[in-house]
Amino acid sequence: MKIESCVETFLNAIVVDRNLSERTLEAYKSDLKIFSQIFKQREIEEITTENVREFIELLEKNHHYKDSTIKRKIATLKVFFNFVEQEGVIADSPTRKIRQKYKIAKRLPKVLSERELKKLLMASYNEIKFLQEPEEKRSDSDLKNNNLIRAYRDCAILEILFSTGMRIGELVMLNVNDIKPQERTILIFGKGRKERIIYISSDEVLNAIKEYLIHRKNIQTDVQALFLNRDKKRLSIYSIENIFQKYCKEGKDHEPLYTALLETHYGNNVVV
Question: Are residues 51 and 180 in the same domain?
Answer without folding.
Answer: no
